[in-house]
Specification:
- This protein is about 25% helix and about 25% strand.
- By secondary structure, the chain is α/β, with parallel strands linked by helices.
- It folds into two domains: about 210 residues, Rossmann fold (3-Layer(aba) Sandwich); about 60 residues.
- It binds adenosine-5'-triphosphate (ATP).
- The site of adenosine-5'-triphosphate has 11 residues, from β2 and α1.
- One of its GO terms (molecular function) is ATP hydrolysis activity.
- It is found in: Cell membrane.
- InterPro entries: AAA+_ATPase, ABC_transporter-like_ATP-bd, ABC_transporter-like_CS, ABC_transporter_ATP-binding, P-loop_NTPase.
């Protein structure tokens, strides 16, 4: 293992009573990277992440997380890992301040509890009992507890499910600031915009295998996909798929004598590419197939 590798997985397999959940998975995540795992329900994401966290035993394969085998962690390994699970709860009668201060006592190198509360935007809720927090505020508390031990590696499982758009943006800023501070982050999410916004790289898992792995803007050859150019000509909408949109627009501008009416240029979204990778048809408006020949 090189010193830049936070996570190294080779040939990971796990089956539950004959049902294969992870089927020969390979993965490398560098220190300081934000890595998003995407995949449909039942693809094997949670099983993989729980093996990395040391909460689930693998059947076969090599796994190294922060230099240790999660199935046989050395002393102090767990304190270097922060985990924010999909659903949380418990200690509902304690206030935000009481909870964060209480759990800080479990870590050898805990961050300042009051600073952590402020960093997740819960200053005003310090005296509020956990059971009186909104869903988004509860999630922030979960993150506060996850980062309290100053982890080198943070696992976030669907962290913004149920957030309103503003809360999601604020949460993204929090995660970005953790990443800027050097924390390695493994994120599972069903929100493609979240992966696009936060992740340095994205891995798509289907049927227990990584089927694509790249930066969000290059995933599945996205950067090579043709652009969709739309415009109005003679009062009729036109669409053309081209790898040279600039040349097409220059020709149109010349022919139409300046401004091209109704001009839009779009590329396949991360969602389009993701749906193609997992075998689902893209929506017609963003299809990368040619809709009609050039006029
Ligand atoms: N404890 C278990 N016992 C038996 N089968 C399980 C268990 N946990 C997961 N599975 C099965 O393993 C497969 C992978 O499940 P997993 O939870 O890892 O998928 P996932 O990608 O996290 O899905 P989701 O997006 O729905 O959370 C599924 O077929 C699931 O039914």
């Amino acid at each position: 293992m090189t010193t830049t590798t936070a996570i190294r997985v080779r040939g990971l397999r796990k089956a539950y009573a004959g049902v294969t959940a992870v089927d020969g998975l390979d993965l490398d995540v560098a220190h300081g990277e934000v890595f998003a795992l995407l995949g449909p329900n039942g693809a094997g994401k949670t099983t993989t992440v729980e093996i990395l966290e040391g909460y689930r035993r693998r059947d076969v394969g090599e796994v190294s997380v922060l230099g240790a085998d999660p199935a046989r962690p050395d002393a102090g390994w767990r304190a270097r890992i922060g985990i924010v699970l999909q659903s949380s709860g418990g200690h509902d009668e304690l206030s935000v301040g009481e909870l964060v201060h209480h759990f800080a006592g479990y870590y050898p190198d805990a961050r300042d509890p009051d600073e952590v509360i402020a960093s997740v935007g819960l200053d005003e809720k310090r005296g509020t009992r956990a059971r009186h927090l909104s869903g988004g505020q509860r999630r922030r508390l979960d993150v506060a507890l996850g980062i309290l031990g100053n982890p080198a590696l943070l696992f976030l499982d669907e962290p913004t499910t149920g957030f309103d758009p503003e809360a999601r943006r604020e949460f993204w800023a929090l995660i970005s600031s953790l990443a800027d501070g050097g924390t390695t982050i493994i994120l599972t999410t069903h929100y493609l915009d979240e992966a696009e916004h936060l992740a340095d790289r994205v891995g798509v898992i289907t049927a227990g295998r990584v089927v694509a792995l790249d930066t969000p803007d290059r995933l599945g050859g996205r950067d090579q996909d043709r652009a969709v150019v739309r415009w109005i000509d003679d009062g009729r909408p036109h669409t053309e798929h081209t790898s040279e949109p600039t040349a097409l627009i220059a020709r149109l501008a010349q022919r139409l004598g300046g401004e091209v009416p109704g001009l839009t240029v779009s590329r396949p979204t991360l969602e389009d590419v993701y749906l193609r990778l997992i075998g689902e048809p893209a929506t017609p408006t963003t299809s990368i197939e040619t809709l009609e020949p050039a006029p």
